[in-house]
């Protein structure tokens, strides 16, 4: 095989291949274009997602329940000798203070020790 311009080429052929540098440049350009397209897609996805959230949030409204309002009973239960007894008592006091009395009367009753 005759050697032309530093490459082995079949005899009688004028075809020329790519150098390693040309292949690396082409792969770099391809990778950069894929990264650019991916980044643009992700930015557009974020923009459309945020717009959707704003639209849904603006359509929401707060409305009180009709009387009688639905309710739940919450119980804080612990053993007398539990190491968590003091924090549980503090938590119970905070819940009692924060309970909205204008909606429903306080449903709990005093224990036999508090009477």
What does this structure look like?
With 115 residues, the chain is mostly helical. It has a domain at 18-59. Helices cover 47% and strands 3% of the residues. It contains two helices and two strands, in the order E-E-H-H. It has a two-stranded antiparallel ribbon with strand order 1-2. Strand 1 and strand 2 form a beta hairpin. It starts with a strand and ends in a 17-residue tail after the last helix.
State the major sheet: 2 strands, antiparallel
Provide a count of the helices.
Answer: 2
Kindly, what is the distance between the CA atoms of the first and last residues, rounded to a whole number of angstroms? 110 Å
Cα Rg: 37 Å
What form results from the Cα inertia axes?
A: elongated
The strands making up the biggest β-sheet line up spatially as: 1-2
SSE string, helices as H and strands as E: EEHH
Q: Which structural class do the helices and strands define?
A: mainly alpha
Which runs of at least 5 residues are low in confidence (pLDDT < 50)?
none
Tell me the total number of β-strands. 2
- How helix-rich are the residues, as a percent range? 40-55%
What's the pLDDT, averaged over the residues?
76
Brief summary of the model shown:
By secondary structure, the protein is mainly alpha-helical. The chain has helices at 20-59, 85-98, and strands at residues 3-4, 7-8.
